[in-house]
Amino acid sequence: MGLWGAIILGCTELDRDRCLDRGGQWDEASQQCVEQHTADSSLVEKDSTRYYTYHINYPSLNRTDSLIRNKTRAFAREHKQQFLSLFERDSMPRSASYPWEFRLDYSIQDSAKSFVSILANGYAFSGGAHGNHFFTTINLDRRSDRLLQLKDLLADSAALAPISQFVQRELTKKLLTQFDTQDDKQAIAANKERIRQWVEEGTVPNPENYQYFCLAEPVNGHPTGITFLFPPYQVAPYAAGEQRIFVPASVFADQLNIRYRDWFGVQY
């Protein structure tokens, strides 16, 4: 196989249908799933000096996923270069005790015959009280070998309205539960009201609020919904971290671009 290794998954963990959903090949003789992935050292890129370090973990993808592989490399290259350029321009005294740090980890969030969704999670420290977290998502339509944005899936900008309503309701419910164990009733009421306002402002139905998403929960090789991701501060305090909400296709079925209705299994 050269640089390509085969990962064998026992049938107790992955049955034939799930194997095919993930783009693997089912071996009838062994009753096992064979998935092709890169197995070379280029999946890791790192360097370390006395004053800075960077580490990038790339995702292991199918051989045919060259478009999304190039996208992950380009994103990593851009942000690594920004980090190194900032380091070179910085005029503050260097400190080996607090070296600068850049880390980027890619992970496959969901994958099937027709798509793959990847999350890039990053962290950069360049001095100060704490570092900065950032992320992005990359979605590939394997049928047409096309990178997807949300506007490709939805008929028009008005299609975000039902998604916004669903996300707002589910996020509010999720975030408010953290205050149920507090004793100070006045503080509980104030915090809950602030959370409601934060969520309402951060889930307004405009494209910018929903730019990070992953196709999710495949059945028969196709996604059954979309998971939206929200960075710290968008819908909750920094301490609450990144937020995720899965929206089933039934919520936005009527708003789907006609090209993708059958993809999500929507029946009319």
Would you kindly provide a written description of the structure presented here, covering whatever features stand out?
With 268 residues, the protein is an alpha+beta fold. It has 3 domains: 35 residues, no CATH class; 107 residues, Heat Shock Protein 90, CATH 3.30.565.40; 108 residues, Actin, Chain A, domain 4. Helix content is 27%, strand content 29%. The protein is built from 6 helices and 12 strands. The strands form 3 sheets. A 6-stranded mixed β-sheet has the order 4-5-6-7-8-9, with helices on one face. A hairpin with a 3-residue loop joins strand 4 and strand 5. The N terminus is likely disordered.
At a glance:
It contains six helices and twelve strands. By secondary structure, it is of the alpha+beta class.
SSE diagram, text form:
Blueprint lengths: L3 E6 L6 H6 L3 E3 L4 E7 L5 E5 L3 E6 L8 H24 L10 E12 L3 E11 L6 E10 L4 E2 L2 H4 L6 H17 L8 H18 L10 E4 L8 E6 L12 E6 H4 L16
Helix pairs in contact: 4-5
- Architecture of the largest domain, CATH level 2? Alpha-Beta Complex
* Number of spatially distinct domains: 3
Ranges where pLDDT stays below 50 over 5 or more residues in a row are: 1-14, 35-41
Gap from first CA to last CA: 45 Å
- Biggest sheet statistics: 6 strands, mixed
Query: Which quaternary structure do these chains form?
Result: single chain
In DSSP terms, counting alpha (H) and pi (I) runs of 4 or more, how many helices?
6
Helix content: 25-40%
Q: How many extended strands?
A: 12
Strand order of the largest sheet: 4-5-6-7-8-9
Q: Per the principal axes of the C-alpha atoms, what is the gross shape?
A: globular
Radius of gyration: 21 Å
